[in-house]
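Team,

Forwarding the record for the chain on the shared tracking sheet. I've put the sequence and predicted structure together so nobody has to dig through attachments.
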Amino acid sequence: MNTNQYTLVLPSWFPSSVDLYNGDFNERMVKAYSMRVNSIVLYIVGDLNIKKRRIVIQNKHQYKVITVFYPRWSLGFLGTVVNFLNYVYYGLLFGNLLIKKFGKPVYVHCFVFFPAGLISWYLAKRYRLNHILTEHWTIFYQSMPNNVHKANVFVKYFIKKLISSFALIFPVASALKLEMLSFAPNGKYMVIPNVVDGRLFFFDNRQKPQKFVFVHASTLGYQKNPQLLLKAFENALIQKCDASLKLIGPISEELIFFIEKSDLLKKNIQIMGELSHEKVSEEMKKAHCLVLSSRFENLPCVILEALCCGLLIISTNVGGVSEVVNESNGILIPENNEDELTNAYINIRKKYDGYDHEQIAKNAINKFNYQQNAEMLQDALKKNKII
């Protein structure tokens, strides 16, 4: 590795003290890519709890994270405008300062096109650099409410121009690539999937409890459709499916009330709350099957992590999920179908021993490890003469 060179990483989402888990998948990708070249991450984020700007610098292995916190307003439309202007101001200011201090990067790598793509585009123009994009955002899927296709003509034009300015675009799923191509066809696209930390997520059958355990890990918000998850699980319990369900994530009072009013759910659901990445890996090793009931998705990292642990998957067939889940490792069901999800709970419980769980884990680890991810990026950059 040439330590005199670096890439400048500009993520729209990244973990910080404002939100420890926001864009943690971007952080894992940066770790993977930093195996080949040093990186400096510049993350600009608004913080409601501060009154003046502050900067935090973290030196990680092979990469540095510089987080610039600016005072965030919460005053409706005016606050949105002020926050956006502050974001752009600090992004341009510190982007220029970093390049003056460390020299021109090999290239600029943006994660999620907005708002970081604005800073990426400016720096690429000013310093005659290539900038590339890794995209995770479900906003390109037409199944998502308020997707880009529903934007007004001026916003659409702006997004298309910004997307087409990237030298290379790396959607994390083939489904996302198709959606982006339909919206902005003038880009160079190549799929590079999300990565899994193999030190945490791996096959370990020693911790499995005797009772069958389903696990669900998410934000438990609208996108994840947790009401469907719970209704179908209650139906499965009524039909004598002997199993428990662990819920990992920030749970609302509404969901707690839904569980509390059912004796079956109260008895067989364990509410875990928000857990660290390390704790999530521990809980997965104690489970048998991951269940997702999402209305829309991209390529959920939680599915990849569960597969690396040898878990079976039940998921709605949305976004890029079908690219990794098939009859060899789980069951796909139509979106928002309670009966199908109920049957999936029952059938996966009955047929669990018929799957090769260790092989499921090996297949996933071979495909979603850091080394593989870094090599795919490196090959694409060389082929397109960016490095």
